[in-house]
Amino acid sequence: MKLLLDTHVFLWSLFGEGLSQTARDLFLDTNNTLFLSAASYWEICIKVSIGRLKLADNWIQAFDEEMRVNTIQWLPIAKEHSQRVLTLPMMHRDPFDRMLVAQAQYEKMTLLTVDANIRAYDVPTMW
Domain-by-domain residue ranges, the chain? Predict the structure, then answer.
């Protein structure tokens, strides 16, 4: 299964806390292919830069290591992903979540998320 990690799922995996047992099992199942969106990385960078998210000084290296160790694939934002956002219902206004939904829909991925706002969209989710 192709799993797109919500931002919090990636962060929680890094810190080893917060994941449900199902999410942990899916994350560790080597039959699944894990993806981290450029939108999530951008969200993290913005939140760190404005002080809404506190991370260790070496967080960039730790993120790279987490992606390497868990074979997490990078998902860039494509023109088609951006265009898909145009067709999403305005169920909530978080631009990062909306991009993740658009990417998951377009790429036929399942979103690994606890976020009820995301789960309200027409996109497969698991938690």
Answer: 2-126
Pairing of strands 125-126, 72-75: unpaired
Residue 14 pLDDT class (50, 70, 90 cuts): confident
E strand residue ranges, the chain? 2-5, 33-37, 72-75, 110-112, 125-126
The answer to whether residues 87 and 101 touch, using CB atoms and an 8 Å cutoff, is: no
Helical pair 21-28 and 7-15, crossing angle rounded to 10 deg: 80
Per-residue pLDDT at 17: 84
Predicted TM-score (pTM) of the model is: 0.94
Return the CATH number of the domain spanning residue range 2-126.
Answer: 3.40.50.1010
The predicted structure's pLDDT at residue 10: 95
